[in-house]
Amino acid sequence: MSIDIEGRLVLLGAGKMGGAMMQGWLDRGLAADRIVALDPSPPPEVDAVITGNGIAKNTPIAEIDDAAVVVIAIKPQMMADVLPGIAPLAASAPVFLSIAAGTTIAAFEAHFDADAAIVRAMPNTPASVGCGMTVICPNANASAEQTALCMSLLEAVGKVARVDEEALLDAVTAVSGSGPAYAFLLAEAMADAGVEAGLDHGLATLLARTTVYGAGELMRQSDLPTATLRENVTSPGGTTAAALEVLRADGGLVDAVRGAVAAATRRSKELAG
Question: Is the pTM of this model over 0.70?
Answer without folding.
Answer: yes
